[in-house]
Write a structure and sequence with these properties.
Number of helices: 19
Organism: Phytoactinopolyspora halotolerans
Number of strands: 0
GO cellular component, one term: plasma membrane
Helix content: over 70%
GO molecular function: transmembrane transporter activity
Radius of gyration: 22 Å
Strand content: under 5%
Mean pLDDT: 84
CATH architecture of the largest domain: Up-down Bundle
InterPro entries: EmrB-like, MFS, MFS_dom, MFS_trans_sf, Sugar_transporter_CS
Subcellular location: Cell membrane
Length: about 500
């Protein structure tokens, strides 16, 4: 960025757009659509599988196709947003996501369903980093940015729970196809609102040519990683293809790093991730998501298979966790972020979440929702909500405007990869523990059915012990790696990192 263009750019940065709060509402609606799609389809999957004749062996692709495309293309989506413009990328993502959702709702066979889910992932990979980077360049006052990221973080954290509730309502009272069709009016509202209210500041694009070798290596490396973990869940960790995927991942990502160090215009400038605060936020949040995704899975199984809850009742049972995330993000995180260092929000927040998970390790067949699950959910929601907001703000704070899209893509990538790892890793641990318990106790049991249920619950609690340890580790990462100063209290001119040295280094 030339020195001659800097004063003009700083002048732009010092003039906040009066439409920024309405833009936040529109961007948040779009983000909610993307986030809830990760779980809304889970509730409807049994009905869709029966209607479309999808085999048990292939049904995982309804979930995996979305995760593969989304997780592997996020870096490219972030780079496109930086290069082509965040608003252009955001609007394109909305149109594409709505179109892909229409195909899913109209699906007549499994091929059409899998294709629609992959397309949703492709356009979600454009939409998600563009949304977060738009907030980064539109909100330049420290206190305002804290509030904006608080709202955005609450939606990102609570969207999965909202998806469970909405998926149950639509499936039970309408039709499974509406879990796809519902995205069309949401995207239409967001598109009209974004056209009117979203304004991208001038002089913040990165017009460097696209790094083709880095794009291919990075995308294929992430595809191999996500596919390796999803295959491990269904085929086991010792499966030959699973192991080969992890080897291929290591080779491709090592080559990716080597290319990025040498190219003049890298897909992922290493300065984005080597900053200890941004890198620490990516790692801490990724670890927390590993635990959270696994927990959602086990609590859903527990409530429906052990307690006999309906899909709607299961979704409603998650609402206290969602409420805790909203309160933790908007009332605790956003208010304190401008007063204390982010490590003193993220570290304690993750410890509170770990205590909530620790309570859930005591799950039994007869556990009370009010006495055990409810207080655990509240602690989890408050802890994770308090963590999400500073983590998201820190992930792009102090980054050069030309890198805002790729930095935003990295926080989304850490969440997607964390989700894939968490689902596979913790599900495998739970299944192994359940099998061991059942094998040890089934012989001579008066009620083999009871032993089977006890084994499943034992598997859940064992996996939750691991999840608790992972969240505690993420708290340690936040305390050790992150050393940024307060993320608010002054106006930061985009592109002038000298104004906030404590926040960058």
């Amino acid at each position: 960025m030339s020195e001659t263009s800097q004063p003009a750019q700083d002048q732009v940065a010092q003039q906040p757009d009066p439409r920024r709060w309405r833009a936040l509402a529109i961007i948040s609606i779009a983000q909610l659509m993307v986030v809830l799609d990760a779980t809304i389809v889970n509730i409807a999957l049994p009905s869709a599988q029966a209607d479309l004749g999808i085999s048990d062996g292939n049904r995982q692709w309804v979930i995996t196709a979305y995760a593969l495309a989304f997780g592997s293309l996020l870096l490219l989506g972030g780079r496109i947003a930086d290069m082509w413009g965040r608003k252009n990328t955001f609007l394109t993502g909305l149109i594409g996501f709505a179109g892909a959702s229409a195909i899913g709702g109209a699906a007549v066979n499994e091929g059409m369903m899998f294709a629609s889910r992959a397309l949703q992932g492709v356009f979600g990979a454009l939409l998600a980093p563009a949304a977060l980077s738009l907030l980064t360049v539109m909100f330049i006052d420290g206190k305002e940015r804290a509030k904006a990221f608080g709202i955005f973080g609450a939606i990102a954290g609570g969207g999965a729970g909202v998806g469970l509730v909405l998926g149950g309502l639509l499936t039970e009272y309408m039709d499974w196809r509406w879990v796809f069709f519902v995205n069309i009016p949401i995207a239409a509202v967001a598109f009209v609102g974004a056209t009117a209210f979203v304004v991208e500041p001038k002089g913040t694009r990165n017009r460097s040519p696209l790094d083709i070798p880095g794009t291919l290596l990075g995308t294929l490396g992430l595809v191999a990683l996500v596919y390796g973990f999803t295959r491990a869940e269904s085929e086991g960790w010792g499966d030959g293809v699973t192991l080969s995927m992890f080897v291929v991942t290591a080779v491709l990502l090592a080559a990716f790093i080597a290319v990025e160090r040498r190219t003049a215009a890298p897909l992922l400038p290493l300065r984005v991730v080597l900053d200890r605060n941004r890198g620490g936020s990516y790692l801490a949040l990724g670890l927390a998501i590993i635990a959270m995704f696994g927990l959602f899975l086990f609590l859903t199984y527990y409530m429906q298979l052990v307690k006999g809850y309906s899909p709607i009742r299961t979704g409603v049972a998650f609402l206290p966790m969602v409420a805790g995330m909203v309160i933790g993000s908007t009332q605790i995180g956003a208010r304190l972020m401008v007063r204390i260092q982010p490590r003193y929000l993220m570290g304690p927040g993750l410890l509170v979440a770990a205590v909530g998970m620790l309570i859930l390790t005591q799950l039994g067949i007869d556990s009370s929702y009010v006495g055990l699950i409810l207080p655990a959910e509240i602690l989890l929601g408050l802890g994770l909500g308090t963590t999400f907001m500073p983590a998201m703000s820190l992930s792009t704070h102090g980054v050069e405007p030309r890198d805002a899209g790729i930095a935003s893509a990295m926080i989304n990538t850490s969440q997607q990869i964390g989700g894939a790892i968490g689902t596979a890793l913790l599900n495998t641990i739970a299944a192994s523990a359940a099998t061991t318990y059942i094998t040890s106790n089934i012989a001579g049991a008066s009620s083999p059915e009871l032993v089977q249920i006890e084994g499943q619950v034992h598997g859940y609690s064992t996996a939750i012990w691991w999840a608790t340890a992972i969240v505690a580790l993420s708290s340690l990462v936040a305390f050790v790696l992150i050393n940024a100063g307060k993320l608010g209290g002054q106006t930061v001119a985009e592109g002038d990192e000298e104004l906030a040295p404590a926040m960058v280094h």
